[in-house]
TrEMBL record:
Alphabetical list of InterPro entries matching this protein: cNMP-bd_dom (IPR000595), cNMP-bd_dom_sf (IPR018490), Env_Response_Regulators (IPR050397), HTH_CRP (IPR012318), RmlC-like_jellyroll (IPR014710), WH-like_DNA-bd_sf (IPR036388), WH_DNA-bd_sf (IPR036390)
UniProt keyword Transcription regulation, yes or no: yes
Any one GO molecular function term: DNA binding
Classification lineage: Bacteria, Pseudomonadati, Pseudomonadota, Alphaproteobacteria, Rhodobacterales
Segments forming a coiled coil: none
UniProt keyword list: DNA-binding, Transcription, Transcription regulation
Name by which UniProt lists this protein: Crp/Fnr family transcriptional regulator
SUPFAM superfamilies: cAMP-binding domain-like, Winged helix' DNA-binding domain
Annotated ranges, domain Cyclic nucleotide-binding: 1-120
A Pfam family assignment: cNMP_binding
The keyword Chaperone is assigned to this record: no
GO cellular component, one term: cytosol
Boundaries of every HTH crp-type domain copy: 134-196
Domain of life: Bacteria
Amino acid sequence: MTKTWDLTAYASQGDPLVAPDGACLFRPGDESRAFLIVKSGAVRVEQTNSAGRTVVLYRVAAGDSCVLTTTCLLSEKPYSGYGYAEGTVHAIAISPDRFRSLLADDPQFQELVFRGFAARVGELTAVIDDLLEHRTDLRLARWLANRGVGKLQMTQQEVAQELGTAREVVSRTLKSFETRGWIRLGRGTLTVLDADGLRRYGNMS
């Protein structure tokens, strides 16, 4: 799908911001101090429940803004999730006052912000639908199939966070997939060998 909400044309409206890989850009309880437009790198947005289980909600890529940040700015409420830099993030930080001014006075900015907002809400709905699927093996199979054949530099804990489930469950399921010849496990890596087989399994009703 072609992205139609690239906000980088508004880079002159804010100040440059650089965050190193792994930096925490916001956490629950923080107030939103700026509307960020990512120019390069990505921001991983995730939420952790009271039991300590984490699920990745979405990633903010180049040209994107963060729907959680937009929500905080519009509602004047604090963040409810975490945002971490993946790779070195170069972004533009637009102050809350300037953001509200642009939103009120610039129809194109308003359209781009809300078009991106709507697309992200659709992604979040898909995440919720996936979480309501009780069979982790089917969810994991679909998740791996969507990444295609090749090596993933991810630990099993990171995969568990992507799916919002326990590492032990992911570990058992991955081992069963390896036995079937669909993947190969390594230290801090996993390689998808048969994306079609995973997809067929994941789409079982």
